[in-house]
Amino acid sequence: MPVEAIRRDPMNLDFSTPLVMSIVNCTNDSFYADSRAYTPASAVEKALQAEADGADIIDFGGESTRPGAEYVSEDEELARILPAVEGFRRQSCLPVSIDTRKAAVAQAVLSVGADIINDVSAMEDDRDMARVCAAYGAYVVLMHKKGVPKTMQVSPLYGDVVAEVAGYLQSVAERAVAAGIADDRIILDPGIGFGKNTEDNIALIRELARLRALGYPVLIGLSRKTVIGRVTGRDVADRLAGTLVANTISVLAGANIIRVHDTREHVDLIKIFKACACV
Known about the structure:
alpha/beta, 8-stranded parallel β-sheet, 8 strands
């Protein structure tokens, strides 16, 4: 797949304080219904509202990767996401992230102004992904998962989950650099809920500093996930309070980006931290 256009002026993220990444799902099956945008126009509307609420980054996704999710074709993912990115970019300069595992989708969205590729497969599902991201100077989010979304929650097993995740993330970061991606464009994600049980997820949140010690910015994505429900006993619609506490712990442990459904509340969280000089 040829890379036909190179991003002319790569955006630079400022990690001096934690950033809020707002989720906009261009899907009809994401696990949290309020995050779904059924048309490109509604996706743009959600993104603009998130920007007004103070988001630092918008993360568009055209394929659900919740446990049990089915694979979406390249054409279908592009049909869902490309018009949304184009429509938002016409109205906003806010950094744009795309949640995709496909190099062709990445190239299409990078060519119209996306800045970050958020790949839950750490560029392993599509071996052309690293080349595309390197050519555009894009940021890449490299995430740990065990298995594939359809079956990843079927009896995941670890010895030391934090050590295993840290080792994997170190290896994929090294592979990304070898493929031509600049060291300062790499962001790591422990993959909360991706092939982990409740205890595994809690260990990763509690010991996030061990992942920060790898030397890369860390993204944490735990918003309203099953681990919050298991601990609190709350349904997905009632997990905001638990999510805020878990993200507070993550920020204290060094998280650089928190990926969330509830933008305004998390922007307030970061404002309080900054006012109290906690971060």
